[in-house]
Amino acid sequence: MTARATVDEGPREGARRGPRRVRSGHSMRERQGPSAILPPAMSGHSKWSTIKRQKGANDAKRGALFTKVAREISVAARQGGGDPDANYRLRLAIEKARSVNMPADNIKRTIEKATGGGDAEQFEEIVYEGYGPGGVAVLVEAATDNRNRTAAEVRSIFTKTGGQLAGSGAVAWQFEPRGLITVTRGTVDADEVALAAIDAGADDVDTEGDEAVEIYTDPGALESVRKALEGAGVAVESAESAMIAKNTVELDSAKARQALRLVELLEDLDDVQRVTANFDIPEDVFAEVAG
């Protein structure tokens, strides 16, 4: 696909707090009753995922996706070694590369280059934090070989889209790390997938999306839940670490378009691996960008 205004930044536009009921979500609370409750940030995450899939399906964006995934593989391999069986982060990166149809030869070469030493590119991981239009929280995760260049590019985009960079820790507290597993709906029974995921140790399952079932786990349980689902015959589309907003901000359509433009411009930077923001996408705007 991914800051809420503080007191000195002015009022928020309808920040929404606490859980809400969703008709087609599932959680461990189902054990205690028929109504499933999911945090709004999670049940709204499917909109972001749909937009990401639309972008990923665009051939013009595929080269950029390969660049980002290659950097993720490179960082993981350099930090933890080139054996995916012994390097969980590398295994996730390889699975992501396969999910975007990155050729196996490209994956192999990237790992070999990262672990071969010598003049291989060295990427530094940096997280930028900022405020977007309407005071939404924005996390920008980057992998760069030139910190000054990336900082200047990120700052420029924030400025020209009506946002601003903030200091370290200013907005990160509004997000939490989660494991995210995606299963394409296809012919699968979403309820059966949800029950299998919960039995495997998942925290929440969102079946609201038209295209996919999204399964949320504790970061440390991501791999075990993925393996359990695959062992149960569920075809997992992707499994990755993600940052999920604890609460979301509602924007009007005009500001939502501005915020989406900010996210899109940031994601178009080669150095940027992932952008996470905590605003809801109004239905009319979602229809425009995902149609």
Textual characterization of the structure:
- A five-stranded antiparallel sheet has the order 3-9-10-8-11, sandwiched between helices. A four-stranded antiparallel sheet has the order 7-5-6-13.
- Helix 3 packs antiparallel against helix 4.
- It has three domains: 21-44 and 175-245, Alpha-Beta Plaits (2-Layer Sandwich); 50-115, Integrase, N-terminal zinc-binding domain (Arc Repressor Mutant, subunit A); 124-173 and 247-290, 2-Layer Sandwich (Alpha-Beta Plaits), CATH 3.30.70.980.
- Residues 1-37 have low confidence and may be disordered.
- It is of the alpha+beta class and 291 residues long.
- Helices cover 41% and strands 23% of the residues.
Could you spell the SSE succession in H and E letters? Answer: EEEEHHHHHEEHEEHEEHEEHEEH
Overall residue-averaged pLDDT value: 81
- How are the strands of the largest sheet arranged? 3-9-10-8-11
By CATH, the architecture of the largest domain is named: 2-Layer Sandwich
Strand content: 15-25%
Rounded to the nearest angstrom, the radius of gyration is 19 Å
Give me the number of helical elements. 10
Overall CATH class of the largest domain: Alpha Beta
CATH superfamily of the largest domain: YebC, transcriptional regulation domain
How would you classify the helix and strand content by structural class?
alpha+beta
Shape: globular
Distance between the termini: 15 Å
Bin the helical content. 40-55%
CATH topology of the largest domain: Alpha-Beta Plaits
Largest sheet properties:
5 strands, antiparallel
Count of domain modules: 3
